[in-house]
Amino acid sequence: MDWENDAFTADRTGRPPLGSILRYQRDGTPTLLRRDLIVSGDQLTDATFIYSQGQPAVNVRLNSQGGNRMLETTQANLNRPMAVLYVEEKPELLERDGEQIIRNTREETVINVATIRGIFSTNFQITGVTPFEGQDLALLLRAGALATPIFKVEERTIGPSLGQDNIDRGRAAVLTGFLLVVLFMAAYYRVFGLTADLALFANLVLIVALLSMLQASLTLPGIAGIVLTVGMAVD
């Protein structure tokens, strides 16, 4: 980072100092960065969210080339700030002369600013983050280490009607199976059949109550299991 110049002045004037670039954090805070790059995403081997001495942190590992560069930087810039710049390429679909073309747009965002508290190389930790910030930072660091950018080729949205239709059919299957079993048992076994029907109804109520207590998600296999239970419980 460029700690010698004021980022807010550069933001107000729109003219960053020579040798620096003006970028913004996710909350809109202007940040001045030096143009010389310390390490890049291809030199990152891993980034994981951990708890170090009870505090949330992000453990970062670099390869040997990145570690040597980081060692030189931390030795010369102890107790100075260092920023992480996330560069994302987003494809934009345009139509020109009746043809669809893809134009790549580049977004650069400062996702973390930390103070160098020690001298390190291939393995170090980023502290001073919340658990949510740490998990998000580790995810973005790993995403930035991808050698090939990810482009969105196709996007489809499935409405909730498909899932609701399956739920309605499952409910109808349970009720139909229950009524058929009740009618058959009452017609064939008479009094004993009615007793079995009451036990079957109690069994069904207990299953639904237990699922509600556990806050379980009722999937299609689960609905099929209830239908099977209705038919087998009277056996």
What order do the helices and strands come in, and which of them pair?
Layout: H1 7-13, E1 20-25, E2 30-34, E3 44-52, E4 55-62, H2 64-76, E5 81-96, E6 99-115, E7 123-126, H3 131-144, H4 161-189, H5 191-213, H6 220-232
Parallel strand pairs: 1-6
Antiparallel strand pairs: 1-2, 3-4, 4-7, 5-6
Helix pairs in contact: 4-5, 4-6
Task: Characterize the structure shown.
- By secondary structure, the chain is of the alpha+beta class.
- The protein has two domains: 138 residues, Gyrase A, domain 2 (2-Layer Sandwich); 72 residues, no CATH class.
- The protein contains six helices and seven strands; from the N terminus they run H-E-E-E-E-H-E-E-E-H-H-H-H.
- The strands form two sheets. Strands 2-1-6-5 form a four-stranded mixed sheet, with helices on one face.
- A hairpin with a 2-residue loop joins strand 5 and strand 6.
- Helix 4 packs antiparallel against helix 5 and helix 4 packs parallel to helix 6.
- The longest helix is centred in the last third of the chain and has 29 residues.
- The radius of gyration is 30 Å and the shape is elongated.
